[in-house]
Design brief:
Layout lengths: L8 H20 L15 E5 L6 H17 L3 E5 L6 H8 L7 E5 L6 H4 L10 E17 L7 H8 L5 E4 L5 H13 L4 E4 L3 H9 L5 E5 H9 L3 E6 L25 E9 L4 H14 L3 H9 L3 E2 L4 H21 L6
Helix pairs in contact: 2-9
């Protein structure tokens, strides 16, 4: 065979081999095809219903990096914080189910229906896709605070008014603290923020003496020596805080609360879109680098089915409705 002008024999051989492979793949029906865009109209937008820089925002950005390759298009993250997550969540509820808008929800998704008169039904306004993972909460103190144990802190709270922050009013972190207060018969003043990130900033600056929030939000600050973990709320010690006891270990067996991250689509999304997004997310979460990055910030992976997330949300709503009624908790 004559070599084309300007092409070496070696290059010509490689080109011929590439053409042969392509023809074989085409003949076998396994030729590589371009990925069909998940949303043909625009980039896929993952809406985070809290302030930028917090646990949901960080998780969304980690997932979006690999998800854009799976979905065949750009994936952007948009923060729409406020009203304990219900502003961003309500925005997604109003969007068409064409795959262009995805909700990355946090624990308030299972709390808000029991506490607020929402303009949408949390159960029927969305199609569940995946419970990505759970994150226990931890109570952390500014390093200037004197208390070394939860018992010491609660003893002080019986004598003087103490203040603590959280990333949202009526989130699982807030309720975890309310349950701890009930165990010790005390009441602390709660200062809710519009997201974990600004609350962490004020904790580091000493503007609030303590904060309860997810391990994801607080572990970097604790590791940096700018805050001290006092207790965590999960069933077992989290790998990021191996020296911090759980509430259950301190004489309150059965105590277990955790924040969580879930993916949803608007209710009008087709089952095919739900299945594809679920499967693409599952593939992303098989990536060892992604799993390691999520573990580093505190996420304990679950990777549920859509049906399992639906069941989980219903159970969360029932659980926190009971807590709200039992302790007469009001919106702040």
């Amino acid at each position: 065979m004559e070599t084309p002008r300007g092409m070496s024999v070696a290059h010509a051989a490689l080109a011929a081999k590439a053409c042969w492979i392509a023809l074989v793949l085409l003949a076998s029906g396994t030729a590589v095809r371009a990925v069909e865009p998940f949303c043909p109209e625009s980039a896929v937008k993952i809406v985070v219903p809290f302030a930028p820089g917090g646990p949901t925002d960080i998780s969304a950005r980690i997932l979006s990096e690999r998800l854009r390759d799976r979905l065949g298009q750009n994936v952007i993250v948009e923060a729409r914080g406020g009203a304990s997550g219900s502003i961003g969540t309500g925005y997604v509820a109003q969007q068409p189910g064409n795959g262009c808008t995805v909700l990355l929800a946090y624990d308030t998704h299972g709390v808000n229906p029991a506490l607020y008169a929402l303009p949408f039904d949390t159960v029927t306004a969305f199609k569940p896709v995946m419970l990505v993972g759970t994150i226990p909460n931890t109570l952390a103190l500014h390093v200037s605070q004197p208390w070394k144990t939860l018992d010491e802190l609660m003893a002080a709270a019986k004598k003087t008014e103490l203040v603590y922050a959280s990333g949202a009013s009526a989130g699982v972190a807030h309720f975890s603290m309310k349950l701890i207060e009930q165990l010790y018969g005390v009441e602390l003043q709660h200062v809710p923020y519009k997201g974990a990130a600004p609350a962490v900033q004020d904790l580091m600056g000493g503007h609030v003496p303590m904060m309860i929030g997810s391990v994801l939000a607080l572990a970097p600050t604790i590791k940096a020596g700018k805050a001290r973990a006092l207790v965590q709320t999960g069933a077992k010690r989290h790998p990021l805080l191996p020296d911090t006891p759980t509430v259950a270990e301190l004489g309150h067996p059965g105590f277990n609360t955790a924040s969580w991250i879930g993916i949803f689509l608007p209710a009008s999304a087709s089952d095919a879109l739900v299945t594809r997004l679920h499967d693409d997310l599952a593939a992303v979460l098989q990536d060892a680098a992604i799993r390691e990055r999520l573990a580093t910030i505190g996420v304990e992976l679950v990777v549920s089915s859509p049906a399992e997330l639906g069941t989980f949300v219903n159970a969360e709503i029932a659980r926190w409705t009971d807590v709200i009624k039992r302790y007469n908790i009001k919106p702040e």
